[in-house]
From TrEMBL:
SUPFAM superfamilies: Glycoside hydrolase/deacetylase, UraD-Like. This is Chitooligosaccharide deacetylase. Gene3D superfamilies: Glycoside hydrolase/deacetylase, Oxo-4-hydroxy-4-carboxy-5-ureidoimidazoline decarboxylase. The keyword Lipid biosynthesis does not apply. PANTHER family: POLYSACCHARIDE DEACETYLASE-RELATED. Is involved in generating a small heat-stable compound (Nod), an acylated oligomer of N-acetylglucosamine, that stimulates mitosis in various plant protoplasts. InterPro entries: Glyco_hydro/deAcase_b/a-brl, NODB_dom, OHCU_decarboxylase, OHCU_decarboxylase-1, OHCU_decarboxylase_sf, PuuE. Residues 68-286 form the NodB homology domain. It comes from the Bacteria. Belongs to the polysaccharide deacetylase family. Pfam families: OHCU_decarbox (PF09349), Polysacc_deac_1 (PF01522). PROSITE patterns: NODB.
Amino acid sequence: MNRYPRDFRGHGPTPPDAKWPGGAKIAISLVLNYEEGGENNLLHGDAQSEAFLSDIAGAQPWPGMRHWNMESLYDYGARAGFWRLHRLFTERGLPVTIYGVTSALARNPEQVAAMKSAGWEIASHGLKWVDHRDMPEDAERAQIAESFRLHEEVVGAPPRGWYTGRCSMNTVRLTAETARLDWISDTYDDDLPYWLELGDRDQLVIPYTLEANDMRFATAPGYIEGEQFFTYLRDSFDTLYAEGLDGRAKMFSIGLHCRLIGRPGKIAGLKRFLDYAQEHDGVWFARRIDIARHWAATHPHRRIERPSQMTRERFVTRFGGIFEHSPWIAEGAWSLELGPAHDCATGLHNALTRIFRSAPRDQRLAVLRAHPDLAGKLAAAKRLTPESTAEQASAALDALTDDERTRFQRLNADYVATHGFPFIIAVRDNTKASILQAFETRIGNDSDTEFATACAQVERIAELRLKDILP
């Protein structure tokens, strides 16, 4: 099958009502990345020094060498930044999720004890704070397993959540396959949690952020002062809060790092934002595990039969009648590059109509001629397809008076004699009166105009039929 894996649809045009606890208009997830002691370093068995997310402009890895300045900046995060943040959050009683690099947690026992004492969630940030993009799948799987083992040894319980960050194309699948995680966050693709189907596993994903994130203090373009960070967080909050007031409550993740936001000038912007957010009613500060538990209870996953995953035989059986007596259209659509975007009525309709529109005129004409007359002989003999029967009944065409039936039969005969195919209209968009009016009007059109009109109506009928059976 020619299948495209990326999901551009997500929750679609009508996201679910989050139903946050207490009727909250927004859920805020404060995430503190703890990486100090887990970064690239010769002391950790790596081939080079760290070069990512520090206040050293334009830092590059030093192969075969330790980098004293880089190490010192990371050390600041553990020695000073963490404790400044710990005081800030505990004094305000704010819950936090830690993204803890497991090897870093092992090297920072006092900080781990403080996290646990505060009731913070300690999720896994992978075994080491290194790039996984070129890591062989078996090696990454082994690192994930070791991270679970070491995390439980250091923290006292295994992680229930996961975020690698510098991940590979395999990371999300490999972490989900452990079947040990309530949530994973190696995506940035939504403002709400969602379920990901990976084999037999229904994995909850809580998307993360790289923009409402203090890492932008160490990247270009980025923030250069705490006030810029505050402004961005405030504007994001205002937008999401307003959506919540309109019944479209969302989630707001804020990413933090001890060595970055833990600096005095930077943390001032975070403090301003917390003051601002805490002045509002209906704000739920939550750990990610709390969000995961709420979502699993409120929006449990329900699997559906997905068109993009069907065999050819099943696909044609299911959708071969969407275009009246024309299974070749479904056969052609199955061969297209289908993906998650086509697992809904609008998406699949697009695929089917592409085949119909690109067909030669004689094939499209055959589709038109496959449609029954309205209130015609097939209807009287009860030989319509179930779809056509229901559609004609929706406009009471199955309950005509003798005069109405005679009028329909006359119009049908005149229309076919004039244009060479039956009169076609999306009955469910009309009433008996509007159908008769359209009949009288369109019969006088030229045949090219009627051909185009009839084709558009065939597409509309197909759309309505799909909406009956797909989301």
